[in-house]
Amino acid sequence: MNKIAFYLLSCMGILLFVGCKDKTTLQTEQHFQQSLITYAKGFTLIAYDDIYVVQITQPWASAKEKFTYVLKKEEAKVPDSLKQYTQIQIPIQTIACTSTTHIPALDLLGEVPALIGFAGLDYISTASVREQIKAGKIKELGQNEALNIEVIVDAKPNVLMAFAMDNSNKTLQTIEQAEIPVLYNGDWTEQNPLGKAEWIKLFGVLFDKEKEANHFFEQLVEDYRTAQQLVTQIKNQPTIVSGAMYSDVWYLPEGNSWAAMYFKDAKANYLWNDTPGVGSLALSFEQVLEKGQQADFWINPGHYESLNDLAAANPHYKEFEAFKNKKIYSFAPTKGETGGTLFYEWGPLRPDLVLKDLIQILHPEVLPNYQPHFYRQLQ
């Protein structure tokens, strides 16, 4: 789909993070640049001779702010044109995180011991991290919107990896004033499943494990493409309805969202795939029933974990053929040791497994011996 982007030094490339004025300085002080990102839209990562420049272009949905960081090794010389940006010495030794989507990268890169703080420890399911938690080696930082500043400042991580819904979290500004770099991670805003997973490259650079991160990602892309090839000849594409009611509104994915992309790649006919947008549609029950009552499958019915839960929430759910035929599948029942939803933690970094899960559900003859990793059939 997307070709690997290797750009020659040019004004357009530099505009991604420093502007044309800085182009001359960088050309004279740095001899080579290489863009390391292919699928992700929320950040750029440019490698020079001995520094990396990261720009977080989408720290949250519809963000207007951009954040630029210079990642440098101890001996590296930072050009004058980049000294205005936050500098982070790499490899970092310690990190604090605020989203479970940050956890798998640490596990895969063998950097779990570097994690010294997290916001909401009970949400973590990864076994290696839970061992560290039990050993008292990871501090509880509170909740994302109410971080414990005193604990964070006392722990003084080399980096606080931040998850933010907008720019209203004043706590993060206070932490920055304590000279702890706050590095925004917008992996959750990516709509391409491979784009979500590509954020592992940021962790790779932070820990001086760029090769390991690249190798993992290249293998992941290959596995995802291989899974797609399994269903290229599929003619019968089952119909899908998705989402569920919250109060009086049924929310379901828009046609260009990451969820809809999974349905497309798994060769399913998502009944709202022609709708524009990457967020959620807000429809009435009647609208969804009219279009989706005869759908073959119901995928991702909100937080419900059983047919009884669905029926108790709204008895009219029973009117759907997918309910009658027990063709409802969800990642909600798959939990970690302390109740965290495994999909929210590992799904973004393992789109290959998510796609295989959906292919096995929708086209079981293609993967007859495969056991879904995240999804379960509601009973």
Number of helices: 15
Tell me the major beta sheet: 5 strands, mixed
| Beta-strand share of residues | 15-25%
Mean pLDDT: 90
Distance between the termini: 38 Å
Number-wise, the strands total 20
- Strand arrangement in the largest pleated sheet: 1-2-3-4-5
Low-confidence stretches: 1-31
Written overview of the protein:
31% of the residues lie in helices and 18% in strands. The chain is built from 15 helices and 20 strands. Helix 8 (200-206) runs antiparallel to helix 9 (210-230) and helix 9 packs parallel to helix 15. It is globular and about 65 Å long.
Compact summary:
This protein has 379 residues and is of the alpha/beta class. The protein has helices spanning 11-14, 23-29, 103-108, 127-134, 149-155, 170-177, 193-197, 200-206, 210-230, 258-265, 285-292, 307-313, 321-324, 342-346, 351-362, and strands spanning 34-35, 43-47, 51-56, 67-72, 86-89, 95-97, 115-118, 139-140, 142-143, 146-147, 159-162, 182-184, 239-242, 244-246, 249-253, 269-270, 280-283, 297-299, 328-330, 376-377. Helix 8 packs antiparallel against helix 9 (210-230) and helix 9 runs parallel beside helix 15 (351-362).
Keywords:
alpha/beta, five-stranded parallel β-sheet, disordered N terminus, globular, 15 helices, 379 residues, five-stranded mixed β-sheet
List the helices and strands and how they pair.
Elements: H1 11-14, H2 23-29, E1 34-35, E2 43-47, E3 51-56, E4 67-72, E5 86-89, E6 95-97, H3 103-108, E7 115-118, H4 127-134, E8 139-140, E9 142-143, E10 146-147, H5 149-155, E11 159-162, H6 170-177, E12 182-184, H7 193-197, H8 200-206, H9 210-230, E13 239-242, E14 244-246, E15 249-253, H10 258-265, E16 269-270, E17 280-283, H11 285-292, E18 297-299, H12 307-313, H13 321-324, E19 328-330, H14 342-346, H15 351-362, E20 376-377
Parallel strand pairs: 4-5, 6-7, 6-11, 7-8, 11-12, 13-16, 13-18, 18-19
Antiparallel strand pairs: 1-2, 2-3, 3-4, 9-10, 14-15, 15-17, 19-20
